[in-house]
Design goal:
The complex is a heterodimer.
Chain A (H helix, E strand, L loop, with lengths): L1 E14 L2 E9 L5 E6 L5 E6 L7 H8 L4 E9 L10 E8 L5 H10 L3 E5 L5 H8 L7 E8 L9 E11 L9 E8 L13 E12 L2 E7 L10 E3 L3 H15 L3 E4 L2 H15 L15 E5 L2 E5 L4 E4 H11 L9 H9 L11 H5 L3 H24 L3 H11 L3 H6 L2 H15 L10 H7 L15 E3 L3 E6 L2 H8 L17 E3 L5 E3 L7 H22 L3 H25 L9 H25 L3 E6 L2 E5 L5 H18 L6 E14 L2 E10 L2 E9 L10 H17 L2 H16 L10 E4 L12 H13 L8 E6 L10 E2 L1 H7 L5 H19 L4 H5 L7 H5 L11 E2 L4 E4 L5 E2 L15 E5 L2 E3 L1 E3 L1
Helix pairs in contact in A: 7-9, 10-12, 10-16, 12-16, 14-15, 14-17, 15-16, 16-17, 19-20, 19-23, 20-23
Chain B lengths: L2 H11 L2 E2 L1 H9 L1 H9 L8 E2 L1 H9 L5 E3 H22 L17 E11 L2 E6 L2 E6 L2 H4 L7 E9 L2 E8 L17 E5 L11 H13 L3 E6 L6 H10 L5 E3 L8 E5 L2 E7 L3 H8 L3 H10 L24 E5 L5 E5 L2 E5 L8 E6 L4 E6 L2
Parallel strand pairs in B: 1-2, 9-10, 10-11, 13-14, 14-16
Antiparallel strand pairs in B: 4-5, 4-7, 5-6, 7-8, 9-17, 12-13, 15-16, 17-18
The chains are: A alpha+beta, B alpha/beta.
């Protein structure tokens, strides 16, 4: 029979002392399938000691009777440093993959070999590399149907022949979102004793007409179509396993499922003596291993996807701009949907509360799993990882959990094998430590011309700079010339290192990179031509995956835990990069009267001294041609966009109004780098006003107006005309309240709320607060926004001006030379902060006090817990006074 | 005035009086009026000579200015800074106002203004912010004086190492020539509902059998004056009493050149909670800071706990948990209490041995 499926997972089991590979996949109709492949065995290579080379086979077979299948002499190139001739190596094939390390270590310990190669490749990846099988690609398998109870799959087949199929489509996967609510009294749940109260499940596609199902581990009168209750946790967990088996999902997902829901669920199953076989295998339990502060989970035959980690990664890479990463905040931004409002600390109360409270908790849990599901399914976060899996060959789970090095290495393993090279073993920890003393030199950042540039600035960048350098100089560990004298043709890089020329041997890394770059170009062209939105989306994901892979090679060679860590190569790449940027600057400044205003890594910004965008673009095009000609095709420079206005604050911090060619017209945008408009501890007002100022500066080039805008906003703030929502600051409680050092506003507010309402946010919750007017400590003036609204308490505008709004603006204004002199026409140059500072009054100044809360500056009212050692105010040099309640004094009497 | 009359008067008032106070009062009967005028709540349970002297000085209302109080932080800053300079632990030492964008490796000495995720430090030239990792900052508290070894990168001061003044290692442990045994009793809490009468009985029968030992009573005995009178009469005559009012600050005693510091220790619990450390680690941390209670609060804005000289023995009351440690030649003991753990310590100053006395 023949089976077509998309590969989701792969592992092996031992059957009659022989490994059997299992390929788990999904068919076009969404059926789960498992293909068993026999007669494939693990192997690795060694370089035997010269003294025992002749009877090596005999010795090894004798030493490991029944374990060693074959010992063969082979000829292979060694991986690092150019070699003319192949080396004599020995390939050892074993019967049991799990015993490879034992054989390797014994041979090493007993000094029978000089080195071992590829002895630490995971067996499933060894198999996949040899058979050219990649994660998430489609395969046609010929084989015979077989019956087995070892796996939970719709189709099981003993495979005989496997062939790759071309398809851009993905199989219709089944997604199950899980969210659990644990019942713990004091914030941090303990999986050894705190039960799971609720398991909420959401399905895509539906499960027997259920979009979601909520399981409750106690009797609950309001059960309905989607809510089921149970007498205890164990009964609920049993039902969960039943549903999981019946639905048989391909993807398990959740928001923070990796570090919370899944490990907790496994732990509760264990405590209740229930089965841990949550995967498609009836032999191996699901595992959750703690590595550092993170968990690595595995469910055989399925994939675990953590929506939180996907969102976090996109935020880190800059493809998403989110201020906060809580499910509520993310859902609001991305799905325009709201979480049900129950604070973490209130769960315990709701669980033990009345019917309505419990009902609300059920709805809350239901919503959470629904939102997590929608994030993954609707926002198409997985597309990129699907394509990365296909490009790198790794299984999807490893693409999600692993780093770039693992992807590069998997690709290299295949190419090295094909070209008769062996890969070294992974360096040990100690080796990595040693390497620390050597230094990887970074990219070049040109000294910026700080200020507001109102002439057009063209932004030119080198297309795939680092990959192009690999190709141009034929840079690869296999072509690297380690000796001084060599009798073949070599290329010397600007960094001083040498590689043999392409005519002698083409490097493996440049070959792979060339292929990836070409493929990406082809796909981008295809994406441009297609009119089908779905195809466009898939092609886009593919080109992105190719870009990520291409760019990962440079980092890989400089990563100390990489098999092919060669510091000289990583340094060569950055060295050439620095050379190219410097050379480009030189070419432009020698041949034109333009000015290079900034450059970083692979891009350069040139002031072309015109205000017209079209003209600037033409100048940029000419620069592009000139630079490419002079650099003789090492790398290709391309004009990306034109800045109509560019504000440079410092290295790596700038903002500009950009124009980019698009469909024959111009696309206008504001580009920002390093100017954080997204900082979690800033209120929305701070972000809005910074954005407003940049908008005026860049679009209207009118500093005075920008200044006026700030003043107007501050006026509104002082008159309490800014909506309180814009002034809310949020901070999370990361640990138990009593362990907080120092006094922090959000913690003081929690203490206050506890006294006031009896309940308050707890560990893990976010606290929202505003700062209100008063003479007490700042931390004592943090107040609940709702309470402030209800009681019409005035906001401390001064705090907001000085601590939230002005700090980010100060640098911007400073750079464009806005000073008090210029704007107000009076006095000496003063910092902006001081201009806005309102005059304080000497009110409430009393003769003497008989107690004190702390100290206060008589001039700017800054509060001090302790008298500064300079005995005056740090900010304004004002006199320090005693403060008690709202009274100030120079004298304390008792 | 006759001494016996004074004694009788005080007994009626529920107050005890020491020998020196008795002498002073018998010679200056005017002071008696002052004592009688003082509110009962602010009288110590044992009227001592020192107390009478302080009463005499207090007749006029005391006034204190910000300037005077500002000397507290400056004093400790200068004291610890001088220690650091003599210890020569810090290279490339800079004042805070001398840190510029060109500065690379440097060190500073300063008093901690604020410690949250970042550290704010000040010296007499100004204030600066430092980035510090959690591991390094976990024992830093406000108002203590520390040294920092730093590196400045991209305009950020990064802390590489935190240096504490610490205790110098003693070359020789001080001992007395003759056999001198000291016993420190505290935390009896006679008035507490959890006070254990059996422990107390055991204690009394033990103390009666002791010959030639120095007995020091300090810390919480009871809030009721009749309890205290009873306690004093139960104790051997040679006992030296330091009542609660005296014991808000540490007291130094000297026996044949052995310095003994009797310190209140209630505040140790605050540091234990803050750092999540054991009692022993907490005490050692504070010793390294050369200040047994560095955080300044309006109720204790002073340098009373600053260790300018290094005592040979430190005895803490008010901890209610008994332990003994030795840190760089200093013997540190904390007393238990008659509520839960009636463990106390007898120290032989000739051999510097510590004996555990358990009254349970």
């Amino acid at each position: 029979m023949e089976l077509e499926f998309q590969l989701l997972d792969c592992d092996y089991i031992m059957l009659d002392n022989s490994p059997v590979i299992r390929l788990f996949g999904i068919t076009n109709e969404g059926k789960s399938s498992c293909v068993f492949i026999k007669d494939y065995h693990p192997y690795f290579y060694v370089l035997p000691k010269k003294s025992i080379e002749t009877n090596f086979e005999e010795i090894v077979k004798k030493k490991f009777p029944g374990l060693v299948l074959k010992v063969e002499k082979v000829q292979k190139y060694l991986p690092i440093g150019y070699q003319k001739e192949k080396n004599n190596l020995v390939k050892i094939t074993l019967t049991d993959p799990s015993r490879v390390p034992e054989v390797r270590d014994t041979l090493q310990k007993e000094k029978m070999i000089d080195d071992a190669y590829e002895a630490d490749i995971l067996f499933k990846y060894r198999f996949m590399a040899d058979k050219n099988i990649s994660g998430l690609k489609w395969y046609k398998v010929k084989g015979t149907l077989t019956r087995t109870k070892t796996v939970k799959c719709d189709i099981t087949l003993e495979g005989e022949e496997i062939k790759e199929l071309e398809s851009l489509e993905n199989a219709p996967l089944k997604f199950l979102a899980i969210d659990i609510e644990t019942i713990s009294q004091n914030g941090i749940p303990d999986s050894k004793k705190d039960i799971i109260g609720i398991i909420s499940l959401s399905f895509y596609p539906n499960f027997n007409s259920h979009k979601s199902l909520v399981l409750v581990s106690k009797i609950f009168p309001k059960t309905g179509k989607d809510v089921r209750d149970f007498t205890n946790e164990k009964e609920m967990l049993k039902e969960f396993i039943k549903i999981l088996d019946a639905y048989n999902p391909d993807v398990l997902l959740g928001y923070n499922i990796n570090n919370f829901d899944f490990p907790y669920l496994l732990s509760r199953l264990r405590e209740n003596d229930l089965s841990l076989m949550l995967g498609r295998c009836n032999l191996k339990p699901s595992v959750s291993k703690k590595i550092g502060s993170h968990y690595r989970n595995s469910v055989i035959g399925r994939v675990i996807v953590d929506a939180y980690e996907l969102v976090k990664e996109s935020t880190r890479k800059g493809t998403l701009r989110l201020k906060r990463l809580g499910l509520g905040d993310v859902a609001r931004e991305l799905l325009k949907d709201e979480k049900i409002d129950i604070a973490h600390s209130e769960i315990f109360g709701h669980w033990h509360g009345n019917e309505d409270q419990l009902n609300k908790l059920v709805e809350y849990a239901k919503k959470d799993s629904e939102l997590a599901l929608r994030l993954v399914v609707e926002k198409e976060f997985l597309d990129k990882f699907f394509e990365l899996s296909k490009v790198s060959g790794l299984l999807l789970q490893d693409c999600l959990d692993g780093g770039e090095a693992q992807r590069v290495e998997n690709l290299l393993l295949r190419e090295f094998d094909k070209n008769n090279f062996v890969l070294p073993s992974k360096p040990s920890e100690e080796w990595g430590e040693d390497g620390k003393s050597q230094e990887l030199k970074g990219a070049l950042v040109l000294e910026p011309k700080i200020g507001l540039h109102t002439d057009s600035v063209v932004y030119l960048d080198f297309k795939s700079m680092y990959p192009s350098i690999f190709v141009a100089y034929n840079i690869c560990p296999t072509t690297f010339v380690k000796t001084k004298e060599i009798d073949v043709e070599t290329i010397e890089t600007p960094y001083g290192t040498k590689f043999v020329s392409k005519n002698v041997r083409e490097g493996i890394m440049p070959t792979i990179l060339k292929r990836l770059i070409n493929e990406r170009d082809k796909i981008r062209l295809e994406a441009k031509r297609t009119t089908d939105d779905k195809v466009k989306r898939l092609l886009d994901a593919k080109q992105l995956a190719l870009k990520i892979m291409t760019n990962a090679f440079y980092g890989y060679t400089g990563y100390q835990r990489a098999r092919l860590y060669v510091l000289d190569i990583a340094n060569t790449i950055t060295g050439c990069g620095r050379f190219l940027i410097n050379k480009t600057k030189e070419i432009i400044e020698m041949n034109t009267n333009y000015e290079v205003v900034y450059g970083d890594t692979d891009s350069i910004m040139v002031n072309v001294k015109t205000k017209d965008i079209e003209t600037a673009y033409d100048y940029g095009k000419k620069l592009e041609l000139m630079v490419n000609e002079k650099l003789q095709g090492i790398v290709q420079m391309k004009i990306e966009k034109v800045f109509k206005t560019l504000l440079i604050l410092s290295k790596k911090r700038y903002a500009g109004l950009t124009y980019e060619k698009s469909d024959g017209g111009w696309k206008e945008d504001i580009m920002m780098k390093g100017i954080e408009t997204v900082r979690r501890d800033w209120c929305d007002a701070a972000t809005k006003i910074l954005f407003g100022v940049l908008n005026i500066l860049l679009k209207e080039q009118n500093p005075k107006k920008a200044f006026g805008y700030v003043k107007e906003y501050l006026g509104k703030l002082e008159r309490n005309e800014i909506p309180i929502e814009d002034l809310i600051i949020t901070k999370s409680i990361s640990k138990s309240i009593v362990t907080y050092k120092g006094i922090q506003p959000h913690i003081e507010l929690v203490k206050k709320l506890r006294k006031r309402n009896g309940t308050a946010p707890n560990v893990g919750d976010r606290v929202s607060f505003v700062i209100v007017k008063g003479m007490q400590l700042l931390s004592e003036r943090a107040e609940d926004p709702e309470y402030v609204k209800a009681n019409k308490i005035p906001i401390d505008s001064k705090y907001y001006i000085e601590n939230q709004i002005l700090p980010p603006l100060e640098r911007v204004f400073e750079v464009i030379g806005i000073s008090k002199t210029e704007l107000m026409g009076i006095g000496r140059q003063t910092l902006l902060r001081e201009i806005f500072k309102t005059q304080t009054t000497d009110g409430n100044f009393v003769e003497s006090l008989n107690s004190f809360d702390g100290f206060v500056c008589n001039k700017c009212n800054k509060f001090y817990r302790r008298i500064p050692v300079i005995s005056k105010c740090f900010d304004c040099q004002g006199e320090i006074l005693f403060l008690f309640k709202d009274k100030k004094s120079r004298i304390l009497s008792f | 005035m006759e001494k016996s009359t004074i004694l009788k008067l005080f007994l009626n008032l529920g107050l005890q009086i020491d020998q020196r106070a008795l002498n002073i009062l018998s010679e200056n009967p005017d002071i008696l009026e002052l004592v009688l005028k003082t509110e009962k709540e602010s009288l110590p349970t044992v009227i001592t000579g020192e107390f009478l002297e302080s009463l005499l000085n207090k007749t006029e209302e005391q006034k204190i200015s910000v300037e005077q109080l500002s000397k507290v932080a400056n004093y400790r800053y200068e004291f610890i800074r001088d220690l650091f300079i003599t210890q020569q632990k810090l290279n490339n030492l800079l004042s805070i106002n001398k840190i510029t964008d060109k500065t690379k490796q440097f060190s500073v000495i300063g008093i901690v203004s604020e410690i949250n995720d970042i550290l704010t430090l000040e010296d007499v030239t100004g204030q600066a912010v430092f980035e510090i990792d959690k591991e390094q900052s976990k024992y830093i508290v406000e108002d203590e004086v520390i040294g920092l070894v730093c590196e400045r990168k991209f305009g950020v001061n990064e802390v590489k190492q935190v240096i504490y003044p610490d205790i110098p290692i003693k070359k020789e442990i001080s001992k007395t020539q003759s056999s001198e045994k000291c016993f420190f009793i505290s935390d009896i809490h006679l008035d507490s509902p959890n006070f254990n009468r059996n422990y107390y009985k055991n204690f009394l029968s033990w103390i009666k059998e002791q010959k030639n030992i120095h007995i020091f009573a300090f810390g919480d005995i009871s809030r009721k004056k009749e309890d205290i009178i009873k306690f004093i009469s139960d104790m051997p005559q040679s006992t030296r009493f330091y009542s609660k009012a005296d014991a808000l600050k540490p007291i130094t005693l000297n026996i044949q050149n052995i310095q003994i510091l009797l310190s209140p220790g209630e505040h140790l619990h605050h540091y234990m909670n803050l750092w999540n450390t054991t009692l022993e680690t907490t005490i050692i941390n504070l010793l390294k800071k050369r200040n047994l209670n560095p955080i300044l609060t309006p109720s204790s804005y002073n340098n009373a706990f600053l260790l300018e000289t290094i005592p040979d023995i430190i005895v803490f009351s008010g901890v209610n948990k008994a332990t003994t440690i030795n840190y760089k030649g200093i013997t540190i003991v904390t007393n238990g209490s008659f509520l839960t753990e009636p463990i106390y310590w007898l120290i032989n100053l000739q051999t510097r041995e510590t004996f555990k006395i358990d009254f349970s």
